[in-house]
Predict the 3D structure of the following.
Amino acid sequence: MFRQGLLYSVLYGNSQSVASMRIQRKPDWLKLRLSGTAHFASTKKLIAGYGLNTVCRSAQCPNLHECWSSGTATFLLLGDTCTRSCRFCAVTSAGFPPAPDPGEPQKIAEAVRKMKLSHVVLTSVTRDDLADGGSGAWAATIGAVRVENPEVTIECLIPDFEGRYSALRKVMSTRPELLNHNIETVPALYSLVRPQADYARSLEVLRMAKHEYGLGTKSGLMVGMGETERQVQEVLDDLSAVGCDHVTIGQYLQPSLQHFPVQSYVTPGAFDDYRRYALASGFARVQSGPYVRSSYYAAENV
Ligand code: SF4
């Protein structure tokens, strides 16, 4: 799984730039299947009609066709421009993020109602530029979704808010059914692929949600970025130690030549091994497979 030579080039910078590195051919198990239905067009039209952003589109999720065709999507709050520059992420970080749209919470709430969702996943770009990190918009959106959809369960895939407790408290005190915060990768790769994040801080977000607020918690990571099997197991151990209930593990896919290159395509058998390891570590729910993403089949896994 670990392509030492290639990773060494990235870490220590030989004459070859990351952008010029060759892209590995995808194995057969990653050949995408498109399954369009009339639902896809109606989901797309509804989201466009409200002028909303989705992480499905902004992050170039490979499951977009499947999810939108089944009438679900993950809403992206606070604009489409992120203030961080993780090297694996397709969400744009170019330019200044727009001022938050005060009408966005109600638009999302109405979209959730029209889509007849029983479970909604909300996420956002990271807004380190805002005094409250965007936590006020998060709380307003959760509140509006609840008023408009009293039966819906809410999953919040939140950023770390730079570890600011006031912002984390503002969101956690709304008591979403599930508090999701992605650990994304192994700590050894943080400085390389998500330099503005902090592994211990992310664990603390999950610990706080579980032990201070009693929330159901979820996290996820991508594999295929140069991590070893043992390093993934250690992350699972760390997540389990802070009481994380649910973990997702999926294959990293390079969004463009400017992004961090895929180091390996993890086999379905290796994903099964991670699932077994995670279940044995105490997670109540584990999704592990090449196309698994944080919000993939989220409604079926609450
Ligand atoms: S897995 Fe999540 S982000 Fe991807 S298309 Fe489905 S709902 Fe959207």
